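Objective 1.3, modelling of assemblies. Example input:
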Amino acid sequence: MPNFNEAAELGPGNWQGLARHAGVMAKATHEGRLPVRPYRDSDLEAIYDICVRTGDNGGDATGKFENPRLLADIFAAPYVYLEPSLAFVLPDAADRPVGYVLGTANTAGFVRAYREKWLPRLVSRYPAPTPDVPVRDGWMLEAFHRPERMLLTGADDFPAHLHIDILPSHQGGGNGRRLIETFIDAAAIAGASGVHVTVAVANTRAHGFYRRVGFEPLPIASEGPVVNYGRLTEVGEKGAM
Ligand SMILES: CC(C)(COP(=O)(O)OP(=O)(O)OC[C@H]1O[C@@H](n2cnc3c(N)ncnc32)[C@H](O)[C@@H]1OP(=O)(O)O)[C@@H](O)C(=O)NCCC(=O)NCCS
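Predicted structure (tokens):
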């Protein structure tokens, strides 16, 4: 199990610092919409839970993979480990996260950090896939071992990327929009001109959501049945003027 206290000290994402977190959250407070708060180490198990319960093209992936932690070990935990200052949660009344947005302002840097710092921590838990593993597990194991799949040709204006997941009980009512806006602001503060997301074609609901919150399809090729969307941040919009 990764030690995320150590991560909080060592994670390269921490370079942005708490002051920047505070700036983003101050804006949220001003708007009177504070159930979004920065990620804390104590949120980690809730993050794993949310990731698996929304990980089957937006539906519940419980029981779909041999190792129940695999999905989050690819799509959630490395972000809170490597980029804690770009991780935000939506807490319920008991302060337990029921949704999150995680990501990086610099995908190329994240890919390097994943290979150098994240892979070595977990590689013994996830050996490279062999022909006898079920197809879905095999694909995910392949994704785990090859972070370079995240490098998209033609996405230079959108160096940041994110993952957002909310439990079904808390979807709707603007929670997703609030998380997205928080991330976009934080990515802009970190200097990113734009943010991209990669969405499985099968996740039909997510496509409508991203378009509604300002993302546009990017004309770039990608592996698998997915669509890439991009949205400029304030930094990118100023640069485009
Ligand atoms: C996708 C997800 C993050 C969206 O969050 P949400 O809380 O349901 O969305 P919101 O209520 O914030 O919706 C924001 C806006 O998008 C609109 N919207 C949401 N889903 C939509 C859809 N399928 N089609 C069109 N518009 C949609 C809302 O009406 C709202 O519009 P408004 O702000 O103008 O009123 C959430 O449903 C989720 O976590 N799903 C499961 C996991 C998942 O699929 N994650 C994405 C993986 S790529």
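The chain has a mean pLDDT of 87.
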